[in-house]
Amino acid sequence: MPDTHFGPSRAAIMLPSSILFLSGTILLSLNLVRPLGYAISDWLYLGSLAFALLETLTVDRRNFSCWINGKLLLAAGAITAGSLLSMTRSVHVRVALVETVQLLYVLTLFMSLVWIMIRRGHIGGIAAAFIVSGTFAASVALVDYLAGTQFGATLSGEAARQLWGRYAGPLGHPNKLGYFLVLTAALTLPMALSTQRRLVALVLAGSLWVQVAGIYLSGSVTAYLGLVLTVVVMLVASGAWRRRLAGLAASALLLLALVSYMVGSNPARGLQTIAASIRGDADRVSTITYDARLNLYRLAASRIWENPFVGAGFDQFSTSGLGDAYRLLPGTVHNVFLQGLYSGGLLVLLGWLVFYFYLVHAAVKTLIKARELQALLVGLAASAFALVLMDQFQDAIYQREKWLVAGLLLGAVWVSKPGREASRPPASAPGSDAEALSRREQAMQEASSTLPICIRQRRRRSPHFRDPCRGMSGRHRETA
Questions:
Q1: In total, how many domains does the chain have?
Q2: Which pTM does this prediction carry?
Q3: Which of 24, 36, 101, 418 has its CA 20 to 30 A from that of 449?
Q4: What Cα–Cα distance (Å) separates residue 393 from each residue in 84, 151, 169, 175, 260?
């Protein structure tokens, strides 16, 4: 495999596929704004895929090998074989085929596309675009909460859905909002902790607290757990970040007190309200949600025992294209492994286990090897741990943000393997200290390369070195 260039070149930035991919990531939270049945980000990602195929055949041939990599071949093969086998029990074969094609797409083509973007040096830009998308989604929920508006319902088209006082932003469901924001917050937090630039730190901290507020407004207990796990990963990753994390928490409390004072409320009462709301969410999950989910798990288990190898039929997988009236169960199984086993049998379960093993292994490896300046890699590892946890309690098979994060982490690990790819670490996120240091070093090298040869020699000569330019005229010095 050819060597990889991590730094973004002008040609790479101007390629149409890169522009479409970054645009799709920025608009990722507008999941339910769907012209012709597909989300805006879906159309942009598909456009990026088409252009990337053409570009890797013409102007970007060094990245063509990304399309034929076999990193997730075992997972994709097991899931495909299991889904095809389970179609023998599928009532709606067309739906089962659609489910199979979607999984193959995200496990192969989409992963390869993300890998190409990383090899072009766009990992920092993609992360920044993802954070912007999360901040926007959280802002919509926050505005709806503070002003009593319905912007989120308007953007998602879910105005009639009963949310029990919870907010969904533009994503249509509170659990989806919480899931999305945990992943973006996991990228924002290490960048806010690691940067030394005050303005950048202030912007990132503001974005982070907006996202945390959105998680709170979603009322998703699964998202709360994911956020707590993200903070734990940060504490384990770097001892130097612990003091800064305490500073961020103190700034949040100060901001909450200031807002409470401005609206004429007691800050202590505001904290009590937040705590009571979180306890209410926990009570809801431990009673209503717990009973409903446990009943679904029991029904799914009984179906699994009927035929564990083939499953109940892949048309029962996830929520695509099949109405509630055609489901064998009165709902979807909110656990990725149990859902795969129930609908596709043991082979599909094996495929999911392989995929999540790759993901967890990459996250652990990243935390062990990543230097402190590589805050983005630490954030990707934390988000991977969070999504693995949240997938045990959510129906989150095709969430685009999940596959984006997985692709970024796995791609960063694969691309940085020594002997196969360039050993340089991935480009840091825009505004980070590592990026600034890299730019200064590059500028110094370029400036040094433009100096006359006699000056460069004089700068690095030893005490016994005789300057060949000494005594020459100006014209001869320049040509020496």
A1: 2
A2: 0.82
A3: 418
A4: 26, 28, 21, 10, 34
